């Protein structure tokens, strides 16, 4: 987004549902994008008032009151099983919506939101923000150029350790709040979004297995998975393997994606987002983020000169700026929409079905 574009645009009014880490992350990006922070609602009036004051919203309110009004944008940063009802109410009130992933805990519910946003002619966006690292866009541009050749194999992993011990707990662990999938819906969704976004191809079928390492956490039975391993096939003939875990000791946010074409490979590591490894048979390259040498789409997301590190919050800021641009009638390249949230839900449903049945499952592409 250019400074001229920002200056010519009316600042959007942004309302927030939620008060946790993601609400803080969204709020920082919204403020940077020029939003007027109007209202915040959390799980209680006390927490709403506390969070509204801390984050700089004009007033604290209840979810019911917030959703009764039309806002330029409603950010939904609440437990997963509340997303559908909140997003539906916001859309019906005339608000554009940015909803944390998973958009819904089933593909059927996610599709309903896609159709509703389209019917109301409103923007629905989902923060698959790793798309907004410059070197992810560079990898995508290289593959789209055809230079690496047809995609042959994909290897990916997303490893964390924040739920390593049986004493570690979070609302996401309980299916009543987080939905039937935890590790895959929470972080695996980011990984498969990148697989399809960067490769330019679609997952056609998969076979998966899941593990719940801790059957109980703090005396409560656990029904959601701690880890997932899967093998996939792409429509274009490529094959791949992915590993997702929230119980991998020492891994904090280890998202890695390597795509091998017939002539060239690309590898992106989220914990070292300033570089892209390019592998060739005769030589390999290590590309550093430099707006003077990157593809146009990657350079667009480079806000500071080479050597000045950008990271997760920068990617999130760029996502929110693009979502607000879409609200203003623009069509920013690569914005993840409710359709992408629906796609992630389709793949999540397929993973759960495959793990339950012990067989390959076709991924619905409707």
**Which strand order do you get reading across the main beta sheet?**
16-15-14-13-7-12-11-8-17
Total count of strands: 17
Helix count?
A: 12
Distance between the termini: 32 Å
Low confidence ranges: 1-7
Shape field: globular
Mean pLDDT over the full residue set? 96
> Radius of gyration in whole Å, from Cα?
20 Å
- Helix and strand content put the structural class at alpha/beta
Could you describe the 3D structure shown?
The chain has 366 residues and is α/β, with parallel strands linked by helices. The protein has twelve helices and 17 strands. The protein has helices spanning 3-8, 21-32, 45-55, 63-68, 83-92, 107-120, 134-145, 175-178, 183-199, 296-300, 312-327, 338-357; strands at residues 13-17, 36-41, 59-61, 73-76, 96-99, 124-125, 151-159, 203-211, 216-217, 220-221, 227-234, 239-245, 254-261, 265-269, 275-279, 284-288, 361-362. It has a nine-stranded mixed beta sheet with strand order 16-15-14-13-7-12-11-8-17. A six-stranded parallel beta sheet has the order 3-2-1-4-5-6, sandwiched between helices. Strand 2, helix 3 and strand 3 form a beta-alpha-beta unit. Helix 2 (21-32) crosses helix 11 (312-327). The longest helix has 20 residues, at 338-357. The radius of gyration is 20 Å and the shape is globular. The two termini are 32 Å apart.
